Amino acid sequence: MFASLLPTCRSLWLALPLAVGLAAPAFAETITVTIEKLTFQPAEVKAKVGDTIQWVNKDVLAHSATARDKSFDVIQPPKKTVSQTLTRAGSFDYYCKYHPNMKGRLTVAP
Amino acid sequence: MLLRWNAAAIAAACMMGCATLAQAAGSAPTDPQIAHIAYTAGALDVAVARQALKKTRSKAVKAFANDMVRDHEAVNKQALALVKKLKVTPEDNDTSRALTKQIKDEQAKLAKLKGKAFDKAYIDHEVAFHKTVNGALTSTLIPSAQNAELKSFLETGLKIFQGHEQHAEHVAADLK
Questions:
Q1: Partners of A90 in the β-ladder
Q2: How many CB atoms lie within 10 A of CB B67?
Q3: Of A8, A38, B25, B118, which residue has the fewest beta carbons closer than 10 angstroms?
Q4: Cβ–Cβ of A100/B166 closer than 8 Å?
Q5: What is the DSSP-derived secondary structure letter of residue A33?
Q6: Do residues A35 and A60 lie in contact, with contact meaning Cβ atoms separated by under 8 Å?
Q7: How far is the C-alpha of A43 from the C-alpha of A65, rounded, in Å?
Q8: Before A17, cis peptide (omega within 30)?
Q9: Closest chain B residue to A98, measured at CA
Q10: What is the nearest CA distance from A37 to chain B, expressed in angstroms?
Q11: Among candidate residues A44, A46, A52, A7, the one with its CA nearest the CA of residue A25
Q12: Least confident span in A29-33, B11-15, B104-108, B141-145
């Protein structure tokens, strides 16, 4: 019983200084949003501060994920993958500034 | 099919104020003709964008024109790769010729304008041109396309150009 708790405790002690030091959750995730044929997939993403969005652009066109409130503007060149680390909590409606008919929503928990 | 093509061409002609497009319509366009029309429309939009890049001083208009050059060149590059793969030889036709004439006339008109008047005329033209092309894609070119890959390519093209239409509308609103 005691022995099985030990690894959990140890990882907690390891995680704690990391979380304090980076001011980010210890278990940050990478979430992939694929852009294909002018669609963000998935169009709705829930994440938390510290997570990374990996934008995979499969189109031959440049796209962008531009927040309506201007809090981010990520350019995704054709056939490239771009990473964006989430630093701000909030609910962001975004669109492609080159093709405004492309839309998505990113909800970032603190 | 015949009726649909005629109606679409007439609608497009009305929007563009170009009577020749209606005369161009006789029957549903073939895949080689569709490929030619799609490519021509893209190349013409690039030509007008290059004219705008030389004339405009507006940052927003310049950015828009650059986006048009980049997107339409990328799409046309893909179009060429596709027709090569499908062994389709694009075939010149009355619709392509009417489009070309309409754009040459538009360019002559734009050449006489300067400053804000030019910017407004160029962006208004872009809104109207994309509307016309999108109308033709929806009502005629996509339904008439026989090859599935060509059809799918045109469908993606439609989404891109609908994006351009909205983008142009945003720029037009900002110019006011």
A1: A108
A2: 21
A3: A8
A4: yes
A5: E
A6: no
A7: 11
A8: no
A9: B167
A10: 6
A11: A52
A12: B11-15
- Domain spans of chain B, in order of start: 30-175
CB contact under 8 A, A37 and B159: yes
CATH topology of domain B30-175: Ferritin (1.20.1260)
Cβ-Cβ contacts under 8 Å between A and B: the total is: 40
Query: Domain segments of chain A: what residues?
Result: 24-109
A77 at the B interface (CB within 8 A)? no
| A35-89 tens-digit pLDDT | 999 999 999 999 999 999 999 999 999 999 999 999 999 999 999 999 999 999 9
Q: Does A27 touch chain B (CB under 8 A)?
A: no
More confident residue, A2 or B131: B131
The residue in chain B having the minimum alpha-carbon distance to the alpha carbon of residue A39 is B159
Q: Do A98 and B162 touch (CB under 8 A)?
A: no
CA of B105 vs chain A CAs: smallest distance (Å)? 27
Q: CB–CB of B156/A61 below 8 Å? A: no
Read off the amino acid at residue B143.
Answer: P
Query: What is the rounded end-to-end Cα distance, in angstroms, of chain B?
Result: 42
- CA A103 to chain B, closest CA, distance in angstroms equals 11
Residue A22: pLDDT band with limits 50, 70, 90:
low
> Between the CA of residue B8 and those of B4, B79, B161, what are the distances in Å?
6, 23, 18
Q: Is the Cβ of B30 closer than 8 Å to some Cβ of chain A?
A: no
- CA distance linking residue B19 with residue B42, whole number of Å: 21
Cα separation of A64 and B27, whole Å?
40
Residue with tokens 């090859």: B147
Region A24-109: CATH code: 2.60.40.420
